């Protein structure tokens, strides 16, 4: 058996034998036996993938106190006592061994690998990891269902999360996307409602079909994603056979301070495949972990799972809904590929399973706000708010030192300090010197002797070159007035109509009708069914009619749906706040005059 990697490192640099404690270190570092240790093992070439060699000489408590026996508690006359610290610690640790679930996307799994830049995009983007063709950047990924709990069947009808963390030379970059190119709402104030409408009812904790359909019935823009939800895109064949989309519009900025708008498309090289509703239901029963197991097994077999990364590119001068006929910053809309073709720029390759699910996947913290120099936000309101609230969720779920997980490991070997870092740590960054310190479970040097404030007279290592490229919005009025170009307008349905009529084939449409009707029939209130069908009717008439015909029992006629569909685009939209001025739209133009000083 090869030596434990940390032991091996010690041997390699000759520290073993000098200090007798070095021999004990490998067992002391049982928590560290994971990504970094494997990295070290690979560097030294002493260990391939597989189980760690536990070289400890006896089991202990967390304090390192010898553990006497696996099967006998300390008792008085056979009755356990609270002075049995082994019994207590074991139970207390067990009781606290789960993190809080993610509030959304709790059910998922992930893998490690790399991203390779395959095309020169430096004219558009100065991001360090895109600076040259052939450059490889380590990544971690996580795939997930959205609204179902951590241990729910992962083939259930849901969008799929598609999250990538790029460990770049200028910090960690996260793309937190979906297998749909669009989302259900576009104003962040509706975010929790979208999720809650698909959640369990707080009163009886049952999945609530009424709330799902009621929200869609009252949110005209939600029915583009709603249609994808009820199509076979809602039941993909595991995590692997999915395309991934960044959904939002982002900015790419170059070294000259120029920018373009982009959208990400990661196309699965092994194809996009879906189950029918019945197949997904059957397989969910047979193996609730189908998607997680499928990815894991493929990687264990040595398969490489790959996606080709593309961007659509739009010039700031083009990014005006009045010119385009659609809103390029509305996350419920796509950019037509005929007008904005895909440009390849990279390859995503997954080739390594996590060593430990809790450490590598549960504790992973992805945030749309984690953008590196060269990649910036756009005027998309949902993106703006997402850049803030994911970290907020993680402060609650994991704590203020989420970035340290599981802390840094410093090993002194002769004169060299080896530092290993893990899933959320920017281990590839050429500098890591946050001005933040303290907080629970801080495990690094905690700012050490540096001044605890800035600016100061000792070290001011700021990077003005990384300041965001400015853009100019349509107005500077603060109010609740909508800037969504499609709001209250019949144009709301144009893209979902094109998806139904031009992209879906006959079979896809039949599945969509069947899946929608199978869920809609469970709704208790005809008022919701009528209103929801009225939204579908505006996508195209045939969609609503086909679903209506498939409903086994109905207490209303289709003419009621037709009547309700008149003005459906205004449902849920208060006239006072609808866009009316020419400037009530989202744009992000290049400012007419230079903003920063030379
Ligand atoms: C306003 C609507 C939304 C709300 C309220 C919301 C909320 C959340 C929350 C609270 C989490 C858990 C974060 C954590 O604890 O780590 C999460 C995860 C996630 N969200 Fe959203 N989200 C919204 C929209 C979106 C959109 C538009 C996308 C895709 C473009 C998206 C993709 C994801 C993904 C992929 C994850 C899982 C990340 C992981 O694997 O850890 N969400 N979301």
Automatic annotation (TrEMBL):
Species for this entry: Penicillium thymicola
Domain of life: Eukaryota
Statement: the UniProt record of this protein carries the keyword Metal-binding: yes
Keyword Zinc-finger: no
Gene Ontology cellular-component terms listed: mitochondrion; peroxisome
InterPro entries (alphabetical): Catalase, Catalase_AS, Catalase_core, Catalase_immune_responsive, Catalase_sf
Phylogenetic classification of the source organism: Eukaryota, Fungi, Dikarya, Ascomycota, Pezizomycotina
PANTHER family: CATALASE, CATALASE (EUROFUNG)
GO BP terms: hydrogen peroxide catabolic process; response to hydrogen peroxide
Pfam families found in the cross-reference section: Catalase, Catalase-rel
Ranges where the Catalase core domain occurs: 60-462
Alphabetical list of PROSITE patterns matching this protein: CATALASE_2, CATALASE_3
GO molecular function, one term: catalase activity
UniProt keyword annotations, A-Z: Heme, Hydrogen peroxide, Iron, Metal-binding, Oxidoreductase, Peroxidase
Similarity remark: Belongs to the catalase family.
UniProt protein name: Catalase core domain-containing protein
């Amino acid at each position: 058996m090869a030596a434990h990697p940390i032991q091996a490192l010690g041997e390699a640099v000759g520290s073993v034998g000098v200090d007798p404690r070095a021999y004990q270190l490998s067992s002391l570092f049982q928590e560290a036996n994971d990504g970094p240790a494997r990295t070290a093992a690979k560097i030294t070439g002493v260990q391939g993938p597989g189980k760690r060699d536990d070289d400890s000489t006896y089991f202990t408590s967390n304090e390192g106190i010898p553990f006497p026996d696996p099967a006998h508690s300390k008792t008085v006359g056979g009755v356990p006592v609270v002075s049995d610290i082994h019994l207590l610690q074991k139970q207390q640790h067990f009781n606290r061994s789960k993190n809080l679930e993610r509030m959304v996307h709790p059910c998922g799994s992930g893998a490690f690998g790399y991203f390779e830049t395959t095309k020169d995009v430096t004219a558009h983007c100065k991001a360090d990891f895109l600076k040259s063709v052939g450059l490889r950047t380590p990544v971690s990924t996580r795939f997930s269902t959205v609204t179902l709990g951590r241990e729910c069947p992962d083939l259930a009808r849901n969008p799929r999360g598609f999250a990538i963390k790029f460990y770049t030379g200028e910090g960690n970059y996260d793309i937190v996307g979906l297998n749909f190119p669009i989302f259900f709402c576009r104003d962040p104030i509706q975010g929790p409602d979208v999720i809650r409408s698909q959640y369990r009812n707080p009163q009886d904790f049952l999945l609530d079909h009424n709330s799902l359909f009621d929200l869609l019935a009252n949110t005209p823009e939600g029915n583009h994603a709603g249609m994808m939800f009820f199509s076979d895109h809602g039941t993909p064949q595991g995590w692997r056979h999915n395309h991934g989309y960044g959904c939002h519009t982002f900015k790419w900025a170059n070294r000259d301070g120029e920018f373009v708008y982009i959208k990400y498309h990661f196309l699965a090289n092994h194809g996009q495949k879906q189950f029918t509703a019945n197949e997904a239901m059957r397989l969910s029963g047979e193996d609730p972990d189908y998607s997680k197991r499928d990815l894991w097994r493929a990687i264990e077999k040595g398969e490489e799972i790959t996606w080709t990364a593309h961007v659509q590119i739009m010039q700031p001068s083009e990014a005006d809904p009045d010119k385009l006929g659609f809103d390029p910053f509305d996350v419920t809309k796509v950019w037509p590929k005929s007008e904005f073709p895909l440009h390849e720029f990279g390859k995503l390759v997954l080739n390594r399973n996590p060593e430990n699910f809790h450490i590598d996947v549960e504790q992973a913290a992805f945030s749309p706000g984690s953008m590196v120099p060269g990649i910036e936000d756009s005027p998309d309101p949902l993106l703006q708010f997402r850049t803030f609230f994911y970290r907020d969720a993680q402060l609650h779920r994991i704590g203020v030192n989420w970035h340290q997980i599981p802390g840094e490991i410093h090993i002194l070997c002769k004169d060299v300090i080896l530092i290993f870092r893990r899933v959320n740590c920017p281990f590839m960054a050429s500098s890591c010197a946050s001005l933040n310190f303290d907080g629970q479970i801080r495990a690094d040097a905690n700012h050490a002797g540096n001044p605890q404030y800035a600016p100061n007279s000792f070290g001011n290592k700021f990077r003005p070159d990384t300041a965001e490229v400015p853009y100019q919005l349509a107005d500077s009025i603060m109010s609740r007035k909508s800037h969504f170009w499609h709001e209250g307008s019949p144009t709301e349905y144009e893209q979902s109509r094109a998806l139904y009529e031009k992209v879906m084939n006959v079979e896809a449409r039949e599945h969509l009708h069947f899946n929608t009707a199978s869920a809609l029939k469970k709704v208790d209130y005809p008022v919701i069914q009528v209103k929801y069908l009225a939204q579908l009717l505006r996508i195209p008439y045939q969609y609503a009619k086909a679903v209506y015909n498939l409903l086994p029992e109905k207490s209303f006629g289709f003419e009621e749906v037709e009547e309700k569909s008149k003005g459906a685009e205004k449902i849920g939209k208060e006239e006072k706040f609808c866009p009316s001025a020419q400037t009530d739209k989202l744009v992000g133009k290049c400012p007419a005059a230079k903003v920063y000083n030379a």
